[in-house]
Amino acid sequence: MPTGEVLVTGLVRADPSVTFAAFTDDIDRWWHRPSAGRDVVVQFAGESLVAVSPSGTDVLGAVTAWDPPHRVVLDWHGPHAEQGDSVTIVFEPEAGGTRVTVRHARTGLPPDAVEHAIIGNWWGDVLQRLAARGRSDVS
C-alpha cells in the first residue's frame, strides 16, 4: 500500500537554533493540552515526546532521529495517530526566520481522505502556536 503524507509548513520569526529549542526544550509552553488539561506536562524525555499527568505518562512519539537544529523524526503515537505513523519536523533557515515543515506519513492515507484534512488542520494549529511562541520570544 502506498504511503500518504500530510505536509504542513509555517514560518517562525526566529533563527533555526531558537526555533528548534522552542519546539523541543520549551514545548510545554505552547503545545496542545490533552483533555486532562492543566495538570499535564508535555516534554521530550529521554528518547520520547511524552505527556505526563497525575494519572501517568502517555508517549506521544518515540524519537527516531534528533539532529539539532535541523530536524526531529518521531514514530507518532499522539493525536490522530494510527499504527505505523511517522512525523518528520524540519527546521530550515529562511529570510525572516525559520521555515518549519511537518510531514505526517501514514501507509494507505489517500489525499482525499477526511483524516488527511483533520491531520493537516491539527498540525497547522501546532505550527501557529509555535510561531506565536517564536514571536513572543524574539520581538
Main beta-sheet annotation: 7 strands, antiparallel
**Mean pLDDT, as a whole number?**
87
Number of discrete helical segments: 2
**What's the number of structural domains?**
1
CATH class division: Alpha Beta
Poorly predicted runs are none
* Share of helix, binned: 10-25%
Describe the global form: globular
Radius of gyration, Cα only, in angstroms? 15 Å
For the record, what is the CATH homologous superfamily label?
Answer: START domain
Gap from first CA to last CA: 46 Å
Structural class: alpha+beta
Range of strand content: 35-45%
Report the count of strand segments.
7
CATH architecture, by name, is 2-Layer Sandwich
H and E order: EHEEEEEEH
Structural account:
The chain is globular, with a radius of gyration of 15 Å. It contains 2 helices and 7 strands. The chain has 139 residues and is of the alpha+beta class. A hairpin with a 2-residue loop joins strand 6 and strand 7. The model has no long low-confidence stretch (mean pLDDT 87). It has a 7-stranded antiparallel β-sheet, with helices on one face. It has a single domain, classed as Alpha-D-Glucose-1,6-Bisphosphate, Chain A, domain 4, CATH 3.30.530.20. The N and C termini lie far apart (46 Å).
List keywords for this structure.
globular; 139 residues; seven-stranded antiparallel beta sheet; Alpha-D-Glucose-1,6-Bisphosphate, Chain A, domain 4; 7 strands; alpha+beta
Per-chain topology:
Layout (H helix, E strand, L loop, with lengths): L2 E10 L3 H9 L16 E5 L2 E6 L2 E12 L3 E6 L9 E9 L2 E11 L6 H25 L1
Antiparallel strand pairs: 1-7, 2-3, 3-4, 4-5, 5-6, 6-7
